[in-house]
Amino acid sequence: MRNFIITLCVFFSTFLPAHHTLSAELVQEKHDIVRAQVTDVKSAAEKVVEGTNIATNEQIISVKILEGVDANKSIELINDYIQLKDNQKFFLNRIEKDTGDVVYSVADTNRLPILGGLFSLFLIVVFFVGGKQGIRGLLSLALSIFCIVFLLLPGIMKGYSPLWVSFSVSGLIIVVGSYITHGFNRTTTAAVIGMLGTVLFTGILAYFAVEWSSFTGMTSDESLYLNINTQGVLDFTGLLLGGIMIGLLGVLYDSAIGQAVFVEELYRSNKDISEKSVFKKAIRVGREHIGALVDTLAIAYVGASLPLFLLLQTTENFSLFVLNREMFAAEIVRILVGSIGLILAVPATTVVSVFFLRKYRGQEIHGHETHHHHHSH
After folding, report:
1. CB atoms within 10 A of CB 314
2. Cβ atoms < 10 Å from Cβ of 254
3. What pLDDT score was predicted for residue 171?
4. 28 shares its domain with 135
5. Are residues 84 and 136 in the same domain?
6. Where residue 83 sits, what CATH number does that domain have?
7. Longest Cα pair distance anywhere in the chain, in angstroms?
8. Radius of gyration of the chain (CA)
9. Which residue among 118, 198, 213, 333 is buried most deeply as judged by most CB within 10 Å?
10. Element (H, E) at 45
11. What's the pTM?
12. Residue 213 domain-assigned (yes or no)
């Protein structure tokens, strides 16, 4: 569930700036993206890109524009981008030069129906398999996306410190998301305090790691375009820090809630158990969890950066300098700092949970918090 949030965060952070780039790069030109449909594929042939030995497919297609100022107009264009089929709907670039000439090119295929279908399937699965808890999780997810799109991104764009904006938004997502999903009770509160402490520590660690590594934060095309569009006012190292903290939230949530619930179950199953004993047992379960989660975190980052790692394979004279380059070093820092935070979340949440839940002793726990426990496992 939370990994889905991470994916969406990545999606929004890479997707939203892309729209500004087009308007900024082409100052004298008016650029629109409109829907269009292929009416006829006139010819398709393979040709070699000049100066390389890479083959590309080139089509000549007839197209009907479906919207905008040229709606219902038919045009013919050469397409050496994504190969299209008869009747296929797609997005078309319409660039109006300052001379009045209009140039058309294929922008992309229309993937929105597929995305919509997958999202509907996701909702159905969450609803039927997750039940009430799944619906609460969806509310929490909606809130997280809202915080990222309407608080995190605008806050960073306005020039506030990305570190503080990320920490504040992370805190808000943790607090509100946890209570929406798991209800108001001591267990959730223990997990929330453990997570906030961990995120604060991870933020400080990430700050020094990024500072001492002299990162610029300029590791991708997106960051270069974003820098041009914002006239260089953004703090890209801070952006890197924010990314590390937001990326950690998903897995952190999983381990903290798990620890808090386990401590509570131990107290419920044996009222006379000592705090030391609860801590030892909970840490043992936490360690199993850590093993799985560190693996998850590292593999998730590697998965997101596969092209980067493949680039390593194609480097003829591989040396340690390659790892030293910012594009790789930043990923390594991200994985290591995230993993350290994740590991420390387990003892932190366990200590807070033991402290909070020992008040259970000598009183019946049922009563004010039963709703939480039907769903916790």
Report:
1. 7
2. 19
3. 93
4. no
5. no
6. 2.40.50
7. 84
8. 26
9. 198
10. strand 30-48
11. 0.69
12. yes
Please report the pLDDT score of residue 303 as a whole number: 80
* SS3 category, 229: helix
Per-residue HEC secondary structure of 113-181 comes to HHHHHHHHHHHHHHHHHHHHHHHHHHHHHHHHHHHHHHHHHHHHHCCCCHHHHHHHHHHHHHHHHHHHH
β-pairing, 102-109 with 89-96? antiparallel
Would you put residue 100 in left (φ > 0), alpha (ψ -120 to 50) or beta?
Answer: left
pLDDT at 305: 74
pLDDT of the residue at 326: 84
C-beta separation of 285 from 262 below 8 A: yes
Residue 177 tokens, joined: 């998301």
Tell me if 120 is assigned to some domain: no
Q: How many domains does the chain have?
A: 2
368: Cβ contacts below 8 Å, ≥ 6 apart: 185
Indicate if 260 and 294 belong to the same structural domain: yes
Q: What are 80-109's pLDDT values in tens digits?
A: 888 888 999 999 988 888 888 888 989 889
Which residues fall within 8 angstroms of residue 112, CB to CB, at 6 or more apart?
Answer: none
The answer to whether the beta carbons of residues 41 and 76 sit under 8 Å apart is no
Residue-level pLDDT at 369: 44
- For residue 314, give the H/E element and its range: helix 306-314
Task: From 52, 77, 109, give the residue that closes a domain.
Answer: 109
Pair (192, 76) in one structural domain: no
Domain housing 181: 131-373
Q: Which residues of the chain, if any, have pLDDT below 50?
A: 8, 10-27, 362, 364-377
